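Work Package 3 (structural annotation) set out to generate three-dimensional models for the target panel prioritized at the project kickoff. During this period the team completed the workflow that converts sequence records into discrete structure tokens, so that structures can be stored uniformly alongside our sequence database. As a representative example, we reproduce one entry of 192 residues exactly as it appears in the project archive.
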Amino acid sequence: MNVSFKILISFLVLSFALIGDSSAQTQQTRIIKMGILDIKRVMKKSLMAKDIARQIDAKRRKFRGEIKKEEEALREANDKLKKQRVILSPETFAEEVRKFRIKTTSLQKKVQLRNQEFIQLRTNANGALRTAIQKALTQITKRYNYNLVLRYTPQLILVRPDYLDISDIVLEQLDKNIKKYQITTAPPKTGK
């Protein structure tokens, strides 16, 4: 109900702004050129977004390979430790278990830190993508004289005529502006 009320108020305000004073309308005719932009579709289909996803996926696969090796080494160390339990003295065994736990904790911290790095990479890349989309949208609105562009959201825009959809021309402009994007490797943040 709250969202519907906000939509109704927005359309009423827009209607009053467009209708305005009838004497002013006779003197000057206002033309509204409206478009609807599906940001999700543009973000999904753009060359820049595909390049970002490819780069992050490559970094993620490389990291998974590193982690797999370390996990395998930890499994082997754990198996070796289990076999040595009967051979080693309790004090020596306890020291070996402590060393093993330190290695395990270190690997877990490494994974957490790397996951945070991936989140930061994705956030930065998505910010750059949104900025590039905004630039492409600005270029399209100026070129085709759009003075009202709505962001497509299924909850707010129930009917979207094809002739109002400008997503494809914005996507085309975005792909013309930026085809590739080099993600930057952010230094891992420490808690200090």
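The mean pLDDT is 84.
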